């Protein structure tokens, strides 16, 4: 076997920096540096061999037959045909029924219904009769599952079952009611037995006695205990129950004294009696007293300490003292050769897994393997979780895919770990397959696992699988988190599957789940893009009913969509009516609709809203008037805009904001002449134009090549005591690069030097001349950046203009320096930055440098312009 040749100490997770390496013996673990890769830590041992060796170990487990029995019992539906099919399948197994085997099956079962089915089937098989032990076992199963009503029904129908009369009738009833938590009925039956001259046997007496202790009927306990002693039935079981009696009354000192008395008098006592008191001390967090008692009875030498050690380890682990438990285990293993049983191994492994102590988990798995301890389902699930946590996803998946070979039934924790690990490894399809298998087995992932898988499916665009996952979740009343279903609906909308997103939203709405603001935004945007303004309108109103306040831009997008329909006015007014009837109308609502109609280039609709507001007694504010003006200007209804502006000026004193709106709007409508008249009119009235007014005028006038007026506007700006903005400066540099007309206009209006030295300061006009090529710049040309900074604050656009200027002459080295300084200034070069420099390098024959920079440009996702492509 491969584990005897090579010990796997390398099941490592790089994130956790665990330190394992393969070596020739299981105890040889060498440290590795934290950064060591997983492939280095597992040496030459392939993942397939690791999985194969584990699978060989798991195939050796001795309860495969028991798993198969319960697989038959649990896979059948609860009808007569299915029951007959299951019974036939059990008969074909050729089981040799005995008390020992039936008890083994019942102890192995986890499903109560399956245990009952097997108990019933076994009792009807020829040659086999249930015993008191098997009855007691099924009673305990029902009791642990708190199915008392089922047990009572079971006992009440007892006399109707022919095969049950093979067992002593009253004994069975007394035991059944005792275990069912009905000791008063059990005692009545016991009294009836004594009245007719029948008595319980030793087994039934002890079941009754134990039930009385469990129900805290301590007075009756003493009476029944005397009956047991009188009949000579007293044994180690009696002693254990009486010790439990002291413990239940919190009389631990009396329990200790009772045990010591039994030992000194040679009474019936075994290690189970000591375990009860040790466990009681531990449950009260009195570990020092428990340890003292354990050591005391170890010195007596009369007991087998293995069971006591197991109880001690179990209680330490349950109390979170796993380090103490591990130290105790190692010391006893060295000193006494103690080997824990399967259950203690499982408990330690599960606790260490929870704490991510993978090295120690690996050690314990190795000990179990080499000690030939047959693993059970808990061990296998823990191993599967271990592989996942250690980052060995291939082994974990191989192990999972081969589960039927050795009867592995993953539990919910194992499914969660495997799905999470596969998602982290990028194996989303495999993770989804595992999820579907888990659902078929009755497990649904935890909230965290569900979120991880759903997030991975959304990220990879596997929306059909994501939709199926959501449907299954909602069927089980598992409601995703706000962030998750927002992400899913967003992904559906981006994929033009907004209808599917709306269906998911509807399901969540049906479950009284309030959608987030982001979810509404994604859905409304999706329906706007698909020209479904009717649904977008419905969602906009629903959004407000859910407590979210829509923004102006959201109204604007919905109104634009409505205005693109065949009957825009009807749709628009319908939405307005719904909005105004919902809460108490406020000015903001009207303004949003005026703004939306203006952006949709429907000024007549905007005017209807404005007039409706006036008729409703709501006084329009300045924002209302500005929005109405903008709606005319955006549609280039210049005369209507001027008339409305004139009416406003008659009704009230025209404000600076109204003039600003008119000037900016006229410039954007390519009417700079009218805008300029309003600027002078504004100044005559003592109003100071905003900087944006100057910017829009410079831009519009420059586009129309009215450079003489541009120079006058710049002059007026500077005379008002304000500086040239980056926007204006960039417009001037751009037009200077295109032609010399701007500079010539500057020369006509001002005195500009014919030559200049960049070592000093230049005026803005001289900078225009330098960029247009009409002024010869002497000195170091790299000082041009500093000169620009003296005229206006540079930005990335400015640097792009500077690069273009430098690329036009034999100054590419300076262009490189400027390119590097862009990073130093905190800017990120954009497509135009790269394209200007690449174009210049190709143009000047510096092909190798151009290709290197072009490759960098492409890696950042920027494409060269058509002009640059021609050079390439």
TrEMBL record:
Origin: domain of life: Eukaryota
Gene3D superfamilies with a match to the protein in the record: Tetratricopeptide repeat domain
Keywords: Repeat
Record keyword Electron transport present: no
Pfam families per record: PPR (PF01535), PPR_1 (PF12854), PPR_2 (PF13041)
Keyword RNA-binding: no
Segments annotated as PPR repeats: 166-200, 341-375, 376-410, 411-445, 446-480, 516-550, 586-620, 655-689, 795-829, 830-864
Family assignment from sequence similarity: Belongs to the PPR family. P subfamily.
Name of the protein described by the UniProt record: Pentatricopeptide repeat-containing protein
